Amino acid sequence: MRYLSDILEGVAFTELQGSADVEISAVVFDSRQVVPGCMFVAVKGTSVDGHDYIEQAIKDGAIAIICEELPAHTAGEVDFLMVADSAKALATLAANFYENPSSNLKLVGVTGTNGKTTIATLLYKLFIDMGYKCGLLSTVENQVNGRIIPSTHTTPDPVALNKLLSDMVDEGCDYCFMEVSSHAIAQHRIDGLSFSGGIFSNLTHDHLDYHKTFDSYLKAKKTFFDNLPKSAFALTNGDDKNGNVMLQNTSAHKKTYGLKSMADYKARIIENQFGGLLLNIDNEEVWFKLVGTFNAYNLLAVYAAALLLEQDRSKVLVSLSKLTGAEGRFEYIVGPNKVIGIVDYAHTPDAVQNVLSTIHDIRKGSEKVITVIGCGGDRDKTKRPVMAKVASEWSDKVILTSDNPRTEDPAQIIKDMEAGIDPAFKRHTVSIADRREAIKTACMFAQPGDIILLAGKGHEKYQEINGVKNHFDDMEELSGQFNEMK
Ligand SMILES: CC(=O)N[C@H]1[C@@H](OP(=O)(O)OP(=O)(O)OC[C@H]2O[C@@H](n3ccc(=O)[nH]c3=O)[C@H](O)[C@@H]2O)O[C@H](CO)[C@@H](O)[C@@H]1O[C@H](C)C(=O)N[C@@H](C)C(=O)N[C@H](CCC(=O)O)C(=O)O
Ligand SMILES: Nc1ncnc2c1ncn2[C@@H]1O[C@H](COP(=O)(O)OP(=O)(O)OP(=O)(O)O)[C@@H](O)[C@H]1O
Ligand SMILES: N[C@H](CCC[C@H](N)C(=O)O)C(=O)O
Ligand SMILES: [Mg+2]
């Protein structure tokens, strides 16, 4: 139990009706989760306004209400607190409720369009391998020192987030590595957290449905670095066009990594093959299990962050060289006739281009590349034609299919994709809305040694159609097909 007065610390409220001397059982921002004695925070959302649920929350037992506007009737035993921005207040309230767990951990946030899961997961695995107790908050899963907690978002809401951090503190964790999505920054999910470091991977086209313009997407990412404390490090990819923009207004220690530009942490690719990467990293040659130029960046970011967290350089390299990447990121299996099947989470134009150019770099000769790809429904529509264009130009055959159509018509999403394909590449393209059939067809097309890329769903274990998540797993489908081909 916590007192309202404790939870209000640092919250700039403009009006308080009632007494701050009451015990609060929970902080809740969804009326459907109200429990007796809780505080209900009314947040204006993208589809509805939490203020419309205040009455329901009180009926169900909320005893304190945080809101931007007072409802018409405020009589009764309930406390009302007015704030200028409920979403911002929610983050502070949640952190206070759980006694600011982030200040008892070394918390490192990773942001950027692509690579967040890979970098955060590698850091988690690395620090566990070096003997620390750690936490991980990622798209694939959350972990509290080895205990897996399924994740619903890349970055959880402030209440779930602080609860997870508090569990990490209770279990004696030293570090937490977390992904910081642009939605989370814009929605103040991470406000009030105390970061020891921030890492930027890259910025390319994604989420313009939500941020509207590339500039506001960039500004959201930059806010994370603007708000880092002086004691933290701000580590950026110096080779990315916007890498240095991220650090312009931060007061944290500025550090860079890169393969091309002048940087504090440098690496050079010596070998890039299916078996892994040989990097010259700070003048030492080391083999890593991950594949592709983009993973050279991810590995270098992890190496640099570990050094900034004062870890021993040679221990870091030894551990890092043993690690595999995150689930569903460039995971491959070899089928009959040496056909290679790759499952990857590329769901942006840049990621599709990176993964396909990697395949081109590492294939041995004239093997054909067959790509199965779709685009999410109810998400950025402008990336659809671009992803299809990139896939068609970098593959010998493309099968356009579904990837979580959500509430949209799968055929329309495929049409949006087809619009991006140059007529010269159309004859290499087929459209099969059913992803299972699309994967089966790719396997049928494959000649000995060919490479099949299943892009976009990575670790996901479902296909979301009309609000229903049906079990679907690209790797399971692929290995099933390979077994049938035997
Ligand atoms: C667009 C978006 O990000 N939406 C997030 C947002 O919901 P919202 O603003 O739409 O909420 P809303 O439905 O309008 O409701 C407003 C308020 O009323 C409350 N409410 C609503 C109904 C009710 O009966 N009672 C009630 O109290 C809600 O709890 C909420 O507080 O706040 C919710 C609570 O934190 C999130 O769950 C929700 O994520 C949705 C489900 C989502 O799909 N988000 C994706 C796009 C996202 O966040 N993705 C990023 C990663 C992207 C990447 O990987 O790069 C992520 O971090 O996961
Ligand atoms: N550093 C990188 N640069 C460009 N592309 C990358 C990079 N790292 C990974 N990718 C590509 O992007 C895909 C997603 O990688 P990852 O899951 O690590 O990114 P993410 O930023 O966590 O994505 P999300 O925003 O969906 O959570 C990978 O499967 C790969 O195709
Ligand atoms: N986490 C990201 C990627 C989803 C990838 C793809 N499978 C889709 O459903 O669009 C998002 O929410 O945009
Ligand atoms: Mg991720």
From TrEMBL:
Sequence motif Meso-diaminopimelate recognition motif, residues? 403-406
Q: Which reaction does it catalyse?
A: UDP-N-acetyl-alpha-D-muramoyl-L-alanyl-D-glutamate + meso-2,6-diaminopimelate + ATP = UDP-N-acetyl-alpha-D-muramoyl-L-alanyl-gamma-D-glutamyl-meso-2,6-diaminopimelate + ADP + phosphate + H(+)
Q: Say if the entry is tagged with keyword Cell cycle.
A: yes
List the record's Gene Ontology CC terms alphabetically.
Answer: cytoplasm
Cofactor(s) needed for function: Mg(2+)
- Give every Mur ligase C-terminal domain span: 328-458
Binding site residues for ATP:
G112, T113, N114, G115, K116, T117, T118
The family database entries (InterPro entries) matched by this protein are listed as:
Mur-like_cat_sf, Mur_ligase_C, Mur_ligase_C_dom_sf, Mur_ligase_cen, Mur_ligase_N, MurE/MurF_N, UDP-N-AcMur-Glu-dNH2Pim_ligase
EC number(s): the record gives: 6.3.2.13
UniProt PTM comment: Carboxylation is probably crucial for Mg(2+) binding and, consequently, for the gamma-phosphate positioning of ATP.
Which pathway does UniProt place it in? Cell wall biogenesis; peptidoglycan biosynthesis
- The UniProt record lists the Mur ligase N-terminal catalytic domain at 23-98
Where does the chain bind meso-2,6-diaminopimelate?
A: R379, D403, N404, P405, R406, G456, E460
Give the enzyme class: ligase
Question: What is the documented function of this protein?
Answer: Catalyzes the addition of meso-diaminopimelic acid to the nucleotide precursor UDP-N-acetylmuramoyl-L-alanyl-D-glutamate (UMAG) in the biosynthesis of bacterial cell-wall peptidoglycan.
Protein family per UniProt:
Belongs to the MurCDEF family. MurE subfamily.
Q: What is this protein called?
A: UDP-N-acetylmuramoyl-L-alanyl-D-glutamate--2,6-diaminopimelate ligase
Lineage, please? Bacteria, Pseudomonadati, Bacteroidota, Sphingobacteriia, Sphingobacteriales
